[in-house]
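Pair request: fold both.
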Amino acid sequence: MSEPFKSFDALKSAYDALAGQPRAGSSDKDSHETAIRDFVEAAAQAGAFIEDPNQRRSAQDMLDYWFTHLLASSDAEMDVVSPRLADYRPVAEMPKGAAEPSAKTESQSDLERSRQIIRLGALARQWRYNDEAKGYLLKGAALEDAKQYSQEDRDIAALVAASEREERKSKNTWITALAVVAILLAVLAGIAILQARTATAQAKLAKEQMIRAEQNYTLAQEEKARADAAAKLALEEQKRADAAALALTQEQKNRAEEQRAEAEAQRRAAEAAAKASDEARLNAEKLAEQAKADTEALSKRFAELQKQQVVLDAAIEVIRKQLQSGELQRSELPEAIAELIKPDAVVDVFSDPSILEGYKSGFLGVDVALPALSETNRPLAFDGGRSLNYLNYSIVLNQQRRMAFYSAVNLDRDQLRVLPGRPFPSYPSKPDPRIPREVQLLPAWFVNPAFDVGHLAWRSEISWGQVLPAVPNTAAQILNDSLYVFTNITPQFDTFNQGIWAALDRWTLTKHNPDARQVTIFTGPVFATDDPVFNGVSIPRAFWKVVVSATPNYSQSAGPSSYVVDAFLISQFKPGTIEKVDLVRSFDPETYRVPVAEIESLTGLRFAEIIESTDRNRLPVIGETIGDVMASRVGLLDAPDAPQRKEVAQELVSALRDGAMVWSEQQKVISALLAMAQDTSVQKLSATGRLNLLFVLSQVPASTWDNAQAVDLKATARDAVAVLESRAAAGSTEIGAQTREHLARLETNIGYGKKSTQTVYLQFTGLTRNAAIEISSRMQQLGWNIPGEERVKEGANEVRFNPAVEADEEAAELLAADLRALGRTAVTAKGNKRIKSGNLEIYLSD
């Protein structure tokens, strides 16, 4: 009796040694059969020492294989059944010195099955010995019967597989059609990329034309304003000339006629300028609409490109499976498809630092540093917060939670490529070999079917760059190996990952600042001590994303005109529960938009200054209005950066001149401008700052200043202008020609220096005469007709008028406001029927 094998490894070694012996000839046939019999007997008894189910199945396969060989090689008829492994019996349960357990055999009912295995095994070996000739292959019912024995013998399994392949060859016509479809999809993808780039160039050209039209419109408006002022002066000159016409000589009359003709020409020029201004505005609107349409078309093409990527990946995956099963031969594929799936040399991305260059802070042309960790978070970070670099992105890892604090991605929309892909789970994530395994998450975290593998950096965001080779399959392998790593994934509910989060990724790729070609994306979870636990794993309640890019400047000045920041926060749990959110496939940015400061507060991160400042200027804090935000930007009219000054000036003018805001919001902005115009503030401004301030104030229409609700603002503006003119007259403040033009327009709009039709009488008590004269002089500077000052005994702080005269009432309200702006804050307008029509009476007292 042969000594049993005491372990699976011993059994496997004996099996391999027996299989390695040369085929037995006639002279040593008996010895070969004896070796096989000894192996079968020892292998059957080995079952008592093999506990693992997988090893027992493998051991039974080895036993069946050599038993079949034994029966097939025997000259005599044998009526036996194949032996079975002995039941496992731990060594501790075997009595000392007990006989080794014997193998079990099947009952008589299994005899026919054994015979079938022997018959088919012999046929399979004849097929192999005859160079796998097709004449031995099975068909129809014989093939179906043989399939049930494929697991019993490797040769039978090979014969069945070859028979199936031969039978399917006649059914492969559709494979060729599928290959043709895949080729067409690849061609369409290339065309879509070309069209997208063409649309981008067209959008840039339209943007440049729109900006030039806006500049022409502004110049036309300025020319019209100058023409209006000149026409007004000419008309006043004409009136004076007409009044003195009777006393003029003929020569003087001729000169007056020339002046009238010149005034008429200036009036016509002003009308032409106004017409040109309107045409420029209409052209600008048309160009803006065209630019918007081009941008929408570009976004649509990006979406089509994504759909084609999905179809192409699916087609390639089907072809790969057909190749692996033998249903399709690589030689049968068209050249274009074979190029996509040919087995290229595998690149080890983790050993080549030129591939994993990671996130670049200067990618946008301005320094956008990685978010800084707080003092609380830094001890939890792997390697002190050192970033781990991958293809076009980097990770900062939280080694305590074994997930990333955040990912930082550089996206270049112009260089994006469509590559064959094997998305998870067919391309499973792997550990990063550069860092310890114990600081990375475990695959067991995803055994719960409710959880998906959520990627922070997205495949479509990093699929670009010169580092990716031209061969698609090699480029895809580099891309996938850099993306599908444990450091880049987090547990996300399936409804969240496949729904709103995927929709946000798509929105980021195409809808965030569509004019921008380069985009930087930060993404991460919100960690909390009370995060819910599933299967022993703490699951983040929410995830955030911060996206930043530069808006191209299509004017002749260098550098970007502005930056755009979008920040979003989305929970994967229903509010107040630990239930996963519903599946939502559309994304509304305003629903999930939050200030960057809120994300900083939740995560302990600190983003770059360019992100914080841009976001502060874009989004109001809770309780703020658009008027508050714009009022806070007034100081930037004197900013050191010229493009920023220009941007703010244009924003303010558009809001105030075109009535884009309701009065309550306009009031906040105008108040901020006037505070900047006060003497103590305006003297601190640079000459450029004063120019910008007066330009914006001059664009506020006269109708806004004449609003009864704006009377105090109008008076404040008149007082500020009076002080500025006094300083200019004294030589302490220099006013350039362009600044003077803006100042003149502002004075016209607020009625500064315009002679009043009312006569004003000033009475005072409790003041010195010099103080009263000083007040009277300031009022006269504003345009009030005050013949003198009179001391009286009656004490009051009023401007009295006849309430029956509407013009007198309006003048009294403005006069009272002018006095309040001068510091006489208690003065009010009060009707008095005894006041003569056309007269106003001021009563002041201390």
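--- second member of the pair ---
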Amino acid sequence: MRLSSLVLIACCASASALAADGGLDAAFGDAGRRSFGFAETDQVQLRAFARSPQGRLWLFGDAPDDPAALFIGRLDSAGQPDGSFGPGGDGRRRTVLPAGLIAQTEALVLDGAVLQADGKPIVFGGLRAVPGETGAYPAIVCRLAAAGNLDVSFDGDGCRTLRVLAAADEVCRVTDAAIAPDGMIAVVGNCTAADISERPFVARLTADGVPDAGFGGGTGLVPAPLPLPGIASQHYEALVVRPDRRIAVLGQFLLSSGNALDHELGLVQFDATGGLDAAFNGNGIRTFAFDLGADNADRARDLVLRPDGRLLALGDATLTDPPMTVALLAGVLPDGSPDGGVGSGGRRVEDVDGTLGANATLASLELDGMGRALIAAREVTGQPDAITDTGTDFWIGFPRTADTEPEQQFVKLLISSGLATTGTISNAALGIAIPFATVADATTEITLPIALQNPDHDLPLPLAVRVAAQAPVSVVVMNGRRYSLDSFVATPTERLGREYRLMAWGDGLGPGSQLVVTAVENATTVWITPAVAVAGHAAGVPYAVTLQRGQTYHLWINNSGQDLTGTHIVGDKPIAVLGGHTCAQVPAGIEFCDLAAEQQQPVDGWGTRFVFTPSPLLPGGEHLRVLAHEGDTRVWLDGVAVATLDAGATYDVLRSAPAVVTTSRPAAAAKLAPSCAVHGLPDCYGDPDMVLLPATRQWSARQHVVLSVPPFGLATDQRITLVVPAARADQVFFDDVLLSPGLFTPIGDGSYAVATLTRAPRTYTVSAPEPIMVAVDGYAARQAHAHGGAGAPFLEVGTSTGSADDTLLRLTAGLARDRCFGQNGRVTIDHTSHVGGATPSVDLVVRAFADGGSVLVGSAVRNSQSGERRLLAYRLIAEALFCDDFEE
């Protein structure tokens, strides 16, 4: 019953006051809200929100920079910090996991919490790897005392770990837990590993935290029954426990109906001993095919048990035309047959008035005392996850090129801005201090010393340059030598991450497959786990490198065919990473080779949907590469299954037709131009280059497009490729001039349209009412380069790419809109005024539940300007206005 956004659904009842129904309750906290921050870190993320039978409100969070800690906030029933809780008497506490749970360092990933009748919390989730460590990471269930410390009467140290023992490197997490009337604790979760399919499980623990010998044949744990008829894989998300100890589980199932993508909601019911309950739909399983999303991916979110034994499940799906997220409700009778009261076939779709954007998610489902449904979801405006490539500070390292004469080499920065500004480019070790000035919507080209190229490898070197500007700029890097060059868009310092999975290439000449790490802070430790043995470092074994600010670390493998793709790179501070090949041949052994280089995106920015568009200038097509970060990552092209990938593995194909790429787990995708001999054009036109394809969730509605002056005077064809939602093809502006919709051609299932433009070298601005993808390709005889558009969603500091708010919707007991609540049952809450900042807050609701005549909500909030995260609770008035109680 965990969430990541907010929408509430329920029915009306008698009015009790004249305040606005659905408004903040001023009697709670500080004008309806109360939040917690922590001195130890400003990155605490709310993961669970619960209320004890004694009326106290508990908020639980974790933090990436304090991994062994559980952060707790506790409020009294009036929303004030509980003065009896925490060492400072301020309602806050930091509790550290017990040592010795695993051989590695303990690091927590929290998923949720439930409270026992005596007020003791049960928290659950999993353990995760810290940089430089490998092995198995089990799921975890812990019990706290009422004071917030670990309850050592629970399995001896307060925590119990769980695994399915499917692989030595499995990573497991509990996704939901419920406390049975007899005090037993039932949990569901999933385990993944690099080279196995996902393995869900259901387990039952005694009140003392030990496995229940009466469940799962004495083990207390039951792996998901495999194989199930017509079901290729499963993921368990939520559960409820019936009074007779049977356990109903909600999950999402991948149906093996040919090669078509078909994720569906599914219910599995287990009997009291852990076997499939044959009394439930005859075989213990019931699936629901909504098939509304363009990817037919129905995602499971939450499950509730009605007093009469019926089950009501919550899911969501994303539509593409128009782009929006809808709520899916599925119901069954106690025997597992569809509940016609929910809708035809037990299904109902709630569109939430079309207010939930394509990146929204549903979070939780609760029933109040009158049987009304409260659903929590996240309403997204704009594109909060859009890539922002404009900034005022950059640290840039440069890839190695194949050896050649110095006069053939070059390093250039192409700097653009929507504003006239000034700045400097510097490297103290090499004595570089170059001032620059930009003119609005123009490109300033700066040539740098070639000493930044071709360094030694496997040691730190002071070879990064810093670009500092007075106003936001975008920076395109063009690097290489004659007949072997590439370009990429640099990432601003503020958007760099800590964890990367390398996208590179293996076949070619010269030093070979390569990576470059750049530190932006002193004393940065970087752990690198090579995908192949390289420079004395064993494959799959992490090693550490310490870098100072402005230092780079280069690594390459001088062996054609050996590929660093899949290498795992983690820093204890933000780092920049480049990947590629010094002189790639695509495919192997085909002339000619060319530099391929791209700035890598942090793993937390990866997505599950991409659009691949090969250049119309290349008759042989282009190479699509999809890289998985987790095992059991499924890949589909235009809805047809093509691969299942292990962690760090790739799917590769040469295609001449566009495709919509969908993955079951977050992934990265890249496009590589083939060697010129593939195309058979005069003068060996074209050569390899590489550009990462941004996931659709990262597209930006406004981008800088930079076309460079052709290097070395070679005649170069440069093309701009625009990919837009097909419904918005008539609303795309190029330098504030509306483009003709006739320029766009539908691709794939018709959800997207593509146009290719030819323009003279300079900087342009492309904008649209919805996010789009932009790429630039340049081809000449035996030469090529490619880079993406530079996301430039703002013209001045202090504006935002979008916001994410809590939306509350309430349905009646019959699942009709509750017109007594908010606007036709819907309320949207923005927390910017509470968290502060000049830009909209980013809110992720966790849970909402009824509290007498009000609704309590827990939300993870982030100040989008400062980046501070807080644990937030608030209360809404839910029974205020006079309303017809008999509307049904």
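Observation on the second member. Helices lie at 832-835.
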